[in-house]
Amino acid sequence: MSFEARLLVAAGGPLAAGLALIWTTPWRRDADHRPARAQQRRIIVRAGYNPSEVHVDAGSPILLVFQRQETSACSERVVFPGLGISATLPAFAETTLELPAVAVGTYPFTCEMEMLHGELIADPPAARVNRVSLPPCAPAGASDGGQRAQGEPR
Q: What is the mean pLDDT of residues 12-20?
């Protein structure tokens, strides 16, 4: 065996093993295919769904926690006809329903008898940013001139 062949075997083996290790490590695979974090919403079931309109971000998995606070036969089951998903809701218990990421749109849900109604509304992710309530700003020119009432924090 020539010197070049021995050098190639000596350097090539560890190099190939190192590349294989780098490309097959879990952190490398997970960095490219990181699962989206599930968003959780709680729904109380008592003579209806509260809230009956549930907003989520489209494109992320969803965890709906149904808390059934009654024994009415009507509310024993929740059905998402557009998603092909249904689940039994035991009385006076919480049931977590895992839904896949959905596209922007409205997905109705009902009881098995279609007497109770609700809607899962998947908003574009940017649309939910503006839902935060902030205190109103003071009108222009309504400055207190640096004066504060006695006892008011600075």
A: 57
